[in-house]
## 1
Amino acid sequence: MPETLSLKEIGLGYSRLKNGIKARVVVCAGTGCVANGSLEVFDALKKSLEQNGLDVVLELKKEENGTLLSKSGCQGFCQMGPLVTIFPQGVLYTKVKPADAEEIVTATIKANKLVERLVYSNPSTGERTAILSEIPFYKKQHRYVLKSCGVIDPEDINEYIADNGYSSAENAAFNMSPEVICRDISASGLRGRGGAGFLTGRKWDMARIQKSAKKYIVCNGDEGDPGAFMDRSVMEGNPHSVIEGMIIAGLATGADEGIVYVRTEYPLAVKRMRKAVADAFALNILGSNIFASDKSFNISVMEGAGAFVCGEETALLASVQGERGMPAPKPPFPAQSGLWEKPTVINNVETLATVPLILRHGTAEYRKMGTEKTPGTKTFALTGHVANTGLIEVPFGTTLRHLLNEVAGGVTGEDGSVSLEAFKAVQIGGPSGACLTRDHLDLPLDFDSLKSIGAMVGSGGLVVMNTCTCMVAISRFFMQFTQNESCGKCVPCREGTKQMLNLLDDILEGRADDTTLPLLEELAVAVQRGSLCGLGKSAPNPVLSTLKYFRQEYTAHIKEHRCPSGSCKAFIQYSIDPALCKGCMLCAKKCPSGAITGELKKPHKINTAACTKCGICVASCKFKAIKGAA
Amino acid sequence: MTNRNHRKFEEVCRILEKNGNDPARLIPVLQQVQEVYRYLPEEIMSFVATSLNISPAKVFGVATFFSHFTLKPKGKYIIRVCDGTACHVKTSTGILDALYKKLSLSEKINTTPDMLFTIETVSCLGACGLAPAVVINERVYGQMTPEKTSEVLDGIIKTEEKQKEAVNA
């Protein structure tokens, strides 16, 4: 057994090293900000700090004075990236470019002055807020699981430890029996964040009572729902919290091996998880006799290969075993017979990241958040037509109205205006979920109330749609997705989704008649009932829920050959308003099919026979003279 | 030719060995093979099957099941247009159509004859905050439009041409 420092010594050591640090600059290095060029900003800041004669500390390895420059995981406010936060002031700069680095260093770090143009300004009110915690997007959230995400350096295990990290796992290894851990987690009311909301404590207990020398813990990081990226952000931003949760799950169930299954589309999450696992092994937090106790726990990281169905636990296990990711019937449940027929607990990333916090702060404290039946917080990926897109966290039971108005900063309409007026619907739970409408603005978001209206929390993707979105086209979009991702095992799912897709295409392309909708509904129920796994069972949900709330849109397509949102290509007719057209000829130049004709400074015309309805002319017209009507 | 094939299999042997010739590690093996060859050649899949003592049908089954694997060679630049929900509602299809048009490709024929570009769609890249997103090889481009994507492509084409000229000169 290697000689290692205790957690306390590591934590104290880190705090001591931090004493010499006068200022800290945190550059967001989540996928979103990196795409916007945050790594170049990081380099520019480093250069500017050095040129200004400030000592730059990139890694706290020895006692140093100077400015600590570090990268963080996703801070959630992706749209405003690249994000740079400066401590001790707590100032957040948005949309930072490498050219801004010099001014940030000379003004803010050296002279404690704000760089006004980088300060966040509210898109609807124009109000400016410099301090991160004061910005409505953050202020109206309750960041619990994400608290350290975006602050700490995900690649520095010492910082996690200094933040009390791994103390829950250490305490569990020495002072808690498996029964007690399961009891505490059950008492906290923690429910799985993967979608179904099964009680985590009960799942663990089921695995705990199995008599088997070998048991497994699998972390499900195969976040395949389009429009969801909470798990990616946790794995990128605070990978050690996931590892700590897995260790505790292992101690609770008697498992000594864990597998983190990350989808291949998340290369940064794979990289950070791998590094975190290696660092934890080096400090004897993973391996044999962890924390110098008599317990052992090993973790390996596996990359998925691109299959949505592998988010389903039995399919995930099949792919870990090197097979096609096809679901198997339950029971037996994985907790009884899972990986290699051994008892296996499969938990979602966010669930596991919550576990250490529950043990650290106590179950009573945890139950103070959220609702009676669904305590705690939930992270959501807020995307689509909203002013602030990004990753957010709120207590369960928060209403949609609060989310849209306060956190998201309003819904964006087609003309770019921001209000709740433009709100049409929000898709919750991805392709397995349902849509919520204006009627649900005051519905508390939790597992049970969503279930009561036929929706689900799912993994937590919230895609907001404005009034210009065609709900029939959206349900076709989801049907196409599930049809593509159906593994092909069950006939109702494999063939049924295909036929449903054909029926939806009939509606969207003007071939539908009176028999289409009844057939679509009949088929939806058949697919729901006849499929084995959650993918097939929930595949018709988007169709059924849009039919429930937006039936008139379906009938308008079928009976009047008209798309009420004016977005379906088959029915749209573009025309140029001669009163608004200035004859600038831009549209005629841009039109890829040469369908627009006209002379300079005279109103142009669209030849509808040649028009391919690509919409490029609408986007190019500066005078808003071209309109599409259906 | 024989020599080249020989070298080809040497690489595969190394990968198989690294994974302990364990049939349970078929997916990581195929991932690593694809990393080297950029696709899964048929003869290599058969070789992997024989080495792991499983049927070629099983290897082929796994390779065709997961969307990450490809049995056809792909272009030097793989353009992945995200068509996740968030990107879709922000009209990612317009970008895709424009790309198909620009490179004269379609859903069926998605690699240019000069093997420079392959166009694919992905369900979600998790960069929804930046929707619509396009990824070219490893680089993510956020908040894209058909015009911006076209500009990026022009940039790549220009660099490639310059490189070619440099080689020819």
Note: The first strand of chain A starts at residue 21 and ends at 28.
## 2
Amino acid sequence: MLPTNCPSCQAQLKVKCLRCENCQTEVSGSYDLPLLALLPESDQQFILRFVINSGSLKEMASELKLSYPTVRNMLNDIINKIKTDEK
Amino acid sequence: MKSNGFFRLMVNPFTRIAGWQAFGLGLVFLVVSGIIGGFGNLVFDGVIDSHLVKQVTMMQSFSYIAISLLTLVLVMWIAGLFIAKGFRFIDILGTMTLSKAPFLLLAIVGYFAEMPDMNEVMKNPLAIFNSMSMVVLMILSIPVLVWSITLMYNALKISCGASGGKLTTAFIIAILTSEAISKLLIYFLL
């Protein structure tokens, strides 16, 4: 799991360096983490399953053995988190 | 850990079951409650009410249940519209129907309860304690009521996706309103 927060002060981390495994070139800078990477792993898994299920909450509910409104509430929570992170 | 999961399922089954499934299961509980209540002269004359009466027909028993259920569902649906958006009516209908399932316990105990002589009770209120089955019914009605109200709260919470003070306030107003409306409807219609 990609760390997104500083273990010392909990502030949001930025990407400082990316490296090519093929030619060892390193690209340095200060890059924001993608929005999805800021979400907890469980939320990322939910989004992945949601996409795989063609965005069908009914199929998600059946797969997770949860009720339809519970799954819809989980999705709403993730939407709220993304909206907060966007700000 | 397992008993914790079972307890959670008993007070909030709606994370697992809602919509038509909950409605179907809830209807089974209500029909059985209505039949046993009809034979045992126990009526569910309000959203969170039940009383032993001298005589009740099967038609009356089901009419009481239908009025209280419809009132509960409609008032909770309207409450939901105030605190949330984008929820399904069928989830409110299903979860609220299932939340009345604990009343089956009262119907079963009520079947064996004996109606005390009201003239005697009027003279001496303590005479009500002469009937052991009546005492059991009265004691059992408290946890059943708490259980059912907890289920109704969780039904509204899950169906609408609401939380916090807004949900609690809306629920309290809705449960009191639905109880009052159901009582009035039963008084005027039956």
Note: Strands of chain B lie at 42-43, 51-52.
## 3
Amino acid sequence: MKIIKRLKILPPTLREKKRFIKFQVLSEEKINYEDLEQAIWNTLLDFYGEEGVAKTGLWVMKNLWDSEKKICVIRCNNLSVQKVIAGLGLISRLGDTRIIIKILKVSGTLKGLKTNCSRK
Amino acid sequence: MQAFDMHVHSAFSGGISSLEELASTAKILGYRGICFVAYPLSKKEEEILKAEIGRVRKEFGIEIYLGFEARNVKELKILAKRRKEFDVLLARGGDLKLNRVACETPEVDILTHPEFGRNDCGFNHVLARLAAENNVAIELNFREILVSSKASRAKVLSHIQKNLMLAKKFNAPVIICSGAISHFEMRDPYCLISMATQLGLELKEAKNAITKVPQKIIEEIKKRRDEKWIMPGVEIVK
């Protein structure tokens, strides 16, 4: 009998359409990635609840965190971009450090994020 | 996008950040201009504030306006009489009487947080109609959402949603402001737009609330500075 190890990949038309949001954290002190991820999840869960966050398909991308420039990328689905950006605006502290989040770019691909970050 | 934040408090008016800190943060966040809001001051303090604003405007290269926020009807009437001496007139919402007088007064530019400190939304269809007639913008104050939490935040959000619904229905202008008292409370214009979309505005309406509505107020400021301007709706025509 053949054992199925992995699920068959969904066809592109059935996959969730994704968006990447690139943002910068403005703060006077250094910040930790772990603190930032915790703050993002806690703020969004507080504001939208578990069911609301489940619908956004949120993913904080650890491998794209730039600790020098304090730039981070999060992924969500195309219908939740405004929802996630509004939630990011509600983050005001990471521990004792006060922060402001500046949205740099929203793109459908990671390649698109690498191009010029000028906003419309 | 040419965004403006028309409600920012500095150390001159109960805030904790200096004019420089606020202006530099606004520039970093991509604002084209901001309005420093103060409560009525003595003549001497007003002169100092105007001089400081002039200096900061040159230093940071963004548009900076001076606004006064009336806390009661008496202050509002006094400020309305000397309307030509400053840029923006705001009325601090929350008191029903002041909300009503502010919506009836064409000299007022912005009615700030009409639901402030109330158990209801402080705004109804009558006030919405008056605000639309007199071109008084209804403010969505982001600070109210930012500093509250849990049940109090839920109440604030519910009241703001009702106010926005009424403003939309009666075509009263809506403006989104940070209401910041510290430069750390200022927010990216995109965060403000996104929050407005979550509270019932369409994306285009939310963008207009942070760009076109403030621009209209600024156009009025320019008209008011003209010698021909006497009061809203009255100008000298040769």
Note: The radius of gyration of chain A is 16 Å.
## 4
Amino acid sequence: MIEITDLQRIYHMGTVEVRALDGVTLDIEKGEFVGIMGASGSGKTTLLHMVGLLDRPTSGRITIDGLDVLRLTDYEKTMFRLYKLGYVFQDYALVPDLTVMENVSLPAMLRKDRSEEQVKKDSSEILQRTGLYDRRDHLPRELSGGQQQRVSIARAMVNKPDILFADEPCANLDSENSRMVLDLFHEINEELKQTIIMVSHEDWHKDYFHRIVRLKDGKVTSDEKNLSAH
Amino acid sequence: MGKKELKVAFLLALRSLQRGSRSSTILTVLIIGMCFTNMIFLPSMFSGIGQGITKQLVDYETSNVLISPKAGDQYITDLDATLDLINGMPGVQRASPQYSKGATFKYRQRVLGVSVRAISPSDEKEVSPVYTKMVAGSYLGEGDTGEIIIGKPMAGDATVRQEDEFQASLGGVRVGDSITVEYGNGYTKDYRVKGIYYTGWSPVDNAAFVTRTDMEQVEGKALDKADYITVRAKPGYTEQFIKNELLAYGVGENGKVQTMTDLLSKSVGKVLQSFAIINMVSLIVSVIITTVVLFIVITIKTLSSRKQIGILKAIGVDKEVIMHNYGFQVMILGILGIILGIVITLVLAAYMMVHPIVTPEWSAYLYITPWDLVINSVILFCAAVVAGYVPAYQVSREDIQSAMRA
């Protein structure tokens, strides 16, 4: 369970103070597929980065499964991200010089509790699940945008993280590929009971979310269950 | 930093070099290779010159041990007894005395001042390889009189006009020609040129040799003295051993005993010291160039990969892994560059062995020992690693947000 309490993030741009997050309080249950929505500049990505330990809030508190994650050292945060969290970025963020298989295996290779055989097995399984096993020896530039994003999802999922963060994963995709990606998230969430927190500004994406948190000017303006979700 | 982390860092490094910009990789390896060649070329050239000069000094001037007159004496006297003593000593191949006399050579219209060296040919053959350097005619025989051998530059070339000559000569003397020699004591004699030699060592090439028997005729008495005696050691005996033996046998009372190294430290030592300073400057410049180039290459690589570095950190790759990734890249580039440098250097060394740089005073080739290659490789490798790790360390410490926004 994720507990976010009175989270604030203030940027200073010269003499101007920008409140990217202004007292966000939120609880997210295990297995939820939460959509964070709002207009550009509303603080969606900032919130995702705070909870995903990619950035440090100005004030507030975040606990994940009871652990105050903001008190962790840099190295502990890195290990927490490796073992507990998965990320999917807007621009896929794959390592261009690694093949699909190498990209997907990379986080698993660093885990001390995984043997080489286990890494291979897990990577192959997740690539089969995302329909890219046949493309495992290709480089990212040899794939379409949709395929690259599915590789990115496979990489995020290979360590079987507790929480999956997705920052506008469909922003660079056409509607067909977007639907494919969202279907994949839905499948992962349904089958693996995976907690997914996804940022989006596309209104039609809300059909996939169990819960929709809307932000405006760094504040939560609405937080409601989506009973009509897939 | 565990084995797994190092493995991932190495994989990232290898793939970046394999699948990244080939031209950048090739260019970097080429620059390192050239820097390595530059580091080793000049010092090896100087070493080659030093070795060449040393060899020529040993072959044509001092041999392994030189016995010269004691301070205040003009000659080594009681020569026959001294030679018998030395030649009977363990470790001595042969001792050869030389006695020089200034003379004026006349051939047709040419006149030339020359130092005539009187030798015992059979002894001299065991001490100096001049007899192997005959370009025309033959070497002196024991007891030859009225016959002389001269250096090629002294003999000259009949096709070159006197005013065009680089150095004064007799204008084209050939074997069998007769030349008139006027010695400093007024004795004049006609010699038949028995042979012409060329050693590449100027002092010998500008001298002439006659037998001691002949010189006794010039002096008008038995020649029981010498300007100096050169002593060749048998294989396996050090020059220091010979020197110690000579001193132990009392030869030191009749002359000054010096090893070739003793002499070198006085004469060539200062030249070699100057070479060492130039070598050091060359080495430092090459190391600085390599360090700067690699620093720039890795800085550009890291700056253009900042976003990727941010992503890697975001997905749980530790900053140490990222740093070692660039460290491994620079190590691989360094090793490839050093291998290329060694190949270039060895090719140059082989070429210069066949085509040495020849001057009237010395000839130079590249003198490279395996130790030179190892030392220079280690220095360059260390410089490369430092140059690579500094920017990698800096960029790996950048916070994720700043890196991802790049």
Note: The beta strands of chain A are 2-13, 16-28, 33-38, 59-64, 67-68, 85-88, 163-167, 195-200, 211-216, 219-225.
